[in-house]
UniProtKB/TrEMBL annotation:
This is Aminodeoxychorismate synthase, chloroplastic. Residues 56-162 form the Chorismate-utilising enzyme C-terminal domain. GO terms for biological process: 4-aminobenzoate biosynthetic process; L-tryptophan biosynthetic process. SUPFAM superfamilies: ADC synthase.
Amino acid sequence: MNPNVSKLINLESYSTVYQLVSTIESSIELCDYKDENPTLGKNRNDTYTRKCPLVMKTMANCFPPGSMTGAPKIRSVEILANNLETSTKTKTKSKRGIYSGCIGYISAFKAQMNWSVVIRTIISKKNRSLGVAPISQFEIGAGGAITILSDPESEWNEAITKLDSVLYG
């Protein structure tokens, strides 16, 4: 693998925020399906993981994105899993729903992929519990990076600004 940082901390300006963006590119060895994959069509996911472990390991190591978890990443994820993702009252896992993730593609024809972190996304859900006709319900997740220096009111204002960027563009 040969990672290359083509953009490092590039400042992008949007209507409500300035965003620092870095672009990291790399080439990794892919497998040839026709020559190496006699089970193509029978169980593609299992075969792909077995025959192309570097691609799958590379993707798995990218998530969750550090910009969503905080740093140091491994410890932040442990804290999220043990505290935020678990109800303090019942000690059971809670379901926050989608907050962020990624969107992208893998091209089998050009042997390339392109992924981006998704944040501040509107999720549409149909809710039939309020009557016969389905009612659309929309959810938007917003949050902030809490540090020892965080001010609760400032963090709240930042979360509202992030919501406004989705609602009012």
